[in-house]
From TrEMBL:
Stated name of the protein: Cd2+/Zn2+-exporting ATPase
Organism, scientific name: Propionibacterium cyclohexanicum
Alphabetically ordered keywords of this record: ATP-binding, Cell membrane, Membrane, Metal-binding, Nucleotide-binding, Translocase, Transmembrane, Transmembrane helix
One Pfam family named in its UniProt record: E1-E2_ATPase
SUPFAM superfamilies in alphabetical order: Calcium ATPase, transduction domain A, Calcium ATPase, transmembrane domain M, HAD-like
PANTHER family: CADMIUM/ZINC-TRANSPORTING ATPASE HMA2-RELATED (PTHR48085), CADMIUM_ZINC-TRANSPORTING ATPASE HMA4-RELATED (PTHR48085:SF5)
Transmembrane region(s): 12-34, 46-64, 71-88, 94-112, 241-259, 265-291, 580-599, 605-623
Keyword Transmembrane: yes
């Protein structure tokens, strides 16, 4: 074991520093530990030159490679300084500079790898084998060998090898690797499971929907790889700065050498002027910040978006599926036309909605099914969704309309007597839909979507994180929006919005000088998400589109990850600024020390490498979660601090998250009025 470990050190990043350091030690031994010359001083000098060559050759090769790409970097400064030191006979200085630079590079690589630990952890959780049910028999195959549509068996303690849907069985799954959640999640038939998660109990039969490189885990790994390599705006500025700074140091050293005739002073300036800590200060911070976020189920697209997130001053959020659970339930069926019963009215509305993808279709269809109505077997001959208004359908030769007032006006339906009913239901926080057949108003059906238990806490934490304006954007009725806004404590409510109106609302905030984050599903809110400074997708574990399109993807359907992401971004940018200051102060002090005397080439390189390590260690603090960022578990928070429902019902503790991941904006536009209403809730 010891031999293997030692061998790996000699073959790895530490090989050059170890060999170079051994040659330096041998040189000192030959010269005498006290520095006295022995009978054969040339042997000691030869060992010192060999040490400089061993450590310096990789540096020179890197400098040549950079010059071929027309880049003048740190390697060139060290190469010129060490070669010059050898020429003027300062063998110890040449060996010390190259040795320390090699040590610094090895430590830098080691610590940078440490900051990428989140990515390594993701790769480590990737499953290698799967148990597949083929022709009635269990077969163990490579995870990459599972085919879409096959049935995979997930036993207690096993890793889930694919993304899929539970067919049979019950169990609990630890989804920390995907969503960052610490508590296992109960899984039943119809629920989603993700590759890389671990079964902590039960037995599941899963139908594979995504395998191999198409799984959520694979997409996350790809995203984190790209994000950690992407440069922030500050990093790009530092690159441009270094492109001018490095030639400037070379020119300064040359001028000083010519004026003072002191070659050693000029070479020392070259070494001291190395902007190593400055160059590494931003990338290491970005890598560490993005790595910390990945561990917490927060995917940040790159350094640029990390920096922008630190400046977020306003957050715009959908209502349906974001501040509310996104699973509305039927609450009222009111008949307004003689000859119709409540069940008949509900059945008609459910059949009209059954063929649409509208989010309010589900509660109608489910409620009808619970009352024993066969909705799915009696679908409409034609279904036509009308954006922002409702649904039109042809049923048994009748033209049926289910939607808001604007849809009824467009269809020529008189709603006079229903106005009072609509106003009452809206005031109670319910979304009401009118039902008409062949221009005759039949009645009203209403649904309600319960406010998330952690919505109010999210708003409070956003304010605490420095966001001074939280705005709710919804296409719902003003009264419904007012009820939800009051329940969660948002600063403004913009109601009655069509999709393009949400985009305009974001633009308006930006014109007011706000840096806006828009929380949406990455699909239906695409215009607003693209226009916002930062687009945020929540519950992204359920949609690959969200992971690829959002600037920030919150993998769990957890509102509290949003303020955590903003805090992380601000911590990261703060560390960036600290690192830049450390690097600049170090260079300034060393240059002053060289010019006034007292700082040698070896001492300067030692301090320089120490500053690089300080910068890296400072950035590595981001890998630790701050005490005030260790949020109470979401489930526990919901249990301890229930949010009142706009309908007046007490909040129920959810044993497991809703089966639908991601946000839906389509529901927001169903009850849109013709105008945009702004309600100041606070």
């Amino acid at each position: 074991m010891t031999r293997t470990r030692a061998g790996s050190w000699l073959r790895g990043r530490w090989a050059v520093p170890i060999v170079s350091g051994a040659l330096i030690a041998a040189s000192f031994a030959v010269h005498g530990l006290a520095g006295n010359r022995s009978a054969n001083p040339l042997a000691g000098d030869a060992l010192m030159i060999a040490a400089a060559l061993v450590a310096g050759l990789p540096i020179v090769l890197a400098a040549i490679k950079a010059l071929r790409s027309r880049v003048i970097g740190i390697d060139l400064l060290v190469s010129v300084a060490s070669i010059g030191a050898v020429i003027v006979g300062e063998f110890w200085e040449a060996a010390a500079v190259t040795f320390l630079f090699a040590v610094g590079g090895a430590l830098e690589n080691a610590t940078l790898n440490r900051t990428r630990s989140a990515l390594r952890e993701l790769v480590r959780v990737a499953p290698e084998v799967a148990v597949v049910l083929r022709e009635g028999r269990q077969e163990e195959v490579a995870a990459s060998g599972v085919r879409t549509g096959e049935t995979v068996l997930v036993k207690n303690g096993a890793k889930v090898p694919v993304d899929g849907t539970v067919l049979e069985g019950t169990g609990t799954i630890d989804e920390a690797a995907i969503t960052g959640e610490s508590l296992p999640v109960e899984k039943l038939g119809g629920d989603q499971v993700f590759a890389g998660t671990i079964a902590t109990g039960g037995f599941l039969q899963v139908r594979a929907t995504d395998v191999g490189a198409d799984t959520t885990l694979a997409r996350i790994i790809h995203r984190v790889e790209d994000a950690q390599d992407a440069k922030a705006k500050t990093a790009r500025f530092m690159d441009r700065f270094s492109a001018w700074y490095t030639p400037g140091i070379i020119a300064l050293s040359l001028a000083v050498g010519l004026l003072t005739k002191d070659t050693e002073l000029a070479l020392t300036l070259l070494v001291i002027g190395c902007p190593g800590a400055l160059v590494i200060s931003i990338p290491v911070s970005v890598v560490a910040g993005i790595g910390r976020g990945a561990r917490d189920g927060i995917l940040i697209k790159g350094g640029e978006f990390l920096e922008t997130s630190a400046r977020i001053s306003a957050v715009a959020v959908d209502k349906t599926g974001t501040l509310t659970e996104g699973r509305p339930e039927l609450t009222d069926v009111e008949v307004l036309h003689g000859g119709w019963t409540a069940d008949e009215l509900l059945g008609l509305a459910a059949r009209a909605e059954a063929g649409s993808e509208h989010p309010l279709a589900r509660p109608l269809v489910e409620a009808a099914a619970q009352r024993g109505m066969d909705v799915s077997g009696r679908l409409a001959a034609l279904t036509e969704p009308v954006a922002g208004k409702g649904v039109l359908a042809v049923l048994d030769g009748q033209r049926v309309a289910v939607g808001n007032r604007r849809l009824m006006e467009a269809e020529g339906v008189q709603i006079g007597e229903a106005t009072a009913t609509l106003d009452r239901l809206s005031a109670e926080g319910r979304t009401a839909m009118l039902v008409a057949a062949d221009t005759t108003l039949l009645g009203v059906v209403a649904v309600a979507d319960r406010v998330r238990d952690d919505a109010a806490e999210m708003v409070r934490r956003l304010h605490s994180a420095g966001v001074h304006k939280v705005v709710m954007l919804t296409g719902d009725d003003e009264r419904v929006a007012r009820a939800v806004g009051a329940a969660v404590g948002v600063d403004e409510v913009h109601a009655g919005l069509l999709p393009e109106d949400k985009l305009n609302a974001v633009v308006h905030l930006q014109r007011e000088g706000e840096v806006v984050a828009m929380v949406g599903d990455g699909v239906n809110d695409a215009p607003a998400l693209a226009t916002a400074n930062i687009g945020v997708a929540m519950g992204a574990a359920g949609t690959g589109v969200a992971i690829e399109t959002a600037d920030i993807a919150l993998m769990a359907d957890d509102l509290l990850k949003l303020p955590r992401a903003i805090r992380l971004a601000r911590r990261t940018v703060s560390v960036m600024h600290q690192n830049i200051l450390i690097a600049l102060v170090t260079v300034a002090v060393l240059l002053t020390g060289v010019l006034v005397g007292g700082v040698t080439m070896a001492v300067g390189m030692l301090v320089h490498e120490a500053s690089v390590l300080v910068v890296i260690i400072n950035a590595m603090r981001l890998l630790r979660r701050k005490a005030n960022d260790t949020w109470t578990d979401t489930a526990a928070l919901r249990h301890a601090h229930p949010t009142p429902d706009p309908l007046g019902r007490s909040a129920r503790h959810r044993a497991r998250p809703a089966g639908r991941a991601g946000l839906t904006a389509a529901g927001d536009v169903e009850q849109a009025d013709a105008r945009t209403t702004v309600v100041h809730a606070r």
